[in-house]
Amino acid sequence: MSGPPEFYDARLVAIYDSANAYGPESQPAFYRQLAADLRASSIIDLGCGTGMITCELAALGYDMIGVDPAPEMLKVARMRPKADKVTWIEGDVHGLGRQDADLAIMTGHVAQFFVSDTSWSSALAALRIALRPGGHLAFESRNPTVREWEDWTPQKRRVVDDPEAGLIERWPEVHEVQDGVVSYTIHNLFLATGEEVLAPTRIRFRSQDELTGSLREAGFTVENIYGDWDRQPASPSSRELIYVASR
Q1: What is the CATH number of the domain that holds 41?
Q2: pLDDT by residue (tens digit) across 3-51?
Q3: Alpha carbon of 54 to those of 47, 50, 133, 137: distances in Å?
């Protein structure tokens, strides 16, 4: 898995939670309820980032494994409440091995950072090994039929307020769209200092057919495909493709 510079740049890691705040009843609530519905006890959070969801689930009593390749991200994660209850792995999915976990999750559109088909299929194979028979995999990916990247323009500016860095103006700039891969840059202008930090990024938009086919090839059975966090079925107009599959 490869990710944008905010996964590694300390300046961007420091504002990551403020810049990528979850809305109410969105991702954290969905994965929390899913874990309860599946009666999971052990959970892998692949691409856990700063560990917000990881530690929230740990606080609820789940045995958590948080995996991320970015040491700066994990440094923040290890400072959270209940971080001592989490097994942290600095590295990629192949550092997991056999865990017999009940559930593996990929939040924050982590699945889209596996740009090549080879890296994606390899990740799915490793996750299958890490899960117990009958265990589940859940993740979300933006729906390419909505063509969300067309709204990622410099005119779509927003200002976030970080408790330490102050106000940061952020906007996206798309450079190329080819074969489902969108290359773009997120601009971060720190208004207090005038410093601008760039985060060039590449992500893959896979169709519902592509995602379903790849899961089946990896030995998973797709149980549900939701179009939003309220568990409505996915449709061509859904912004999200939220998958729940079993091993």
Answers
A1: 3.40.50.150
A2: 565 566 889 999 999 998 888 888 999 999 999 999 999 999 999 999 9
A3: 10, 9, 23, 15
pTM, rounded to two decimals: 0.94
The tokens describing 208, both together, are 């519902």
CA nearest neighbour of 214 among 122, 136, 138, 95: 122
E strands within 69-165?
86-90, 101-106, 131-142, 158-162
Q: For residues 2 and 203, is the Cβ–Cβ distance under 8 A?
A: no
Assess whether 101 and 193 both reside in one domain.
no
Residues 6+ apart with CB under 8 A from 70: 3, 7, 8, 13, 49
Within its chain, how far is the Cα of 8 from the centroid? 15
Q: Using the structure block, give the residue that is written with the tokens 């990710």.
A: 3
* Beta-carbon count within 10 A of 225 CB: 18
176: left (phi over 0), alpha (psi -120 to 50) or beta: beta
Q: 50 with 20: CB under 8 angstroms?
A: no
Same domain, 153 and 96: no
- Overall number of domains in the chain: 2
Query: Domain range holding 161?
Result: 146-203
Q: Are residues 15 and 61 in the same domain?
A: yes
DSSP state of 232: P
Are residue 71 and residue 119 in the same domain, yes or no? yes
> Cβ neighbours of residue 90 under 8 Å, at least 6 residues apart?
68, 69, 71, 74
> Hey, what are 150's tokens?
């067309």
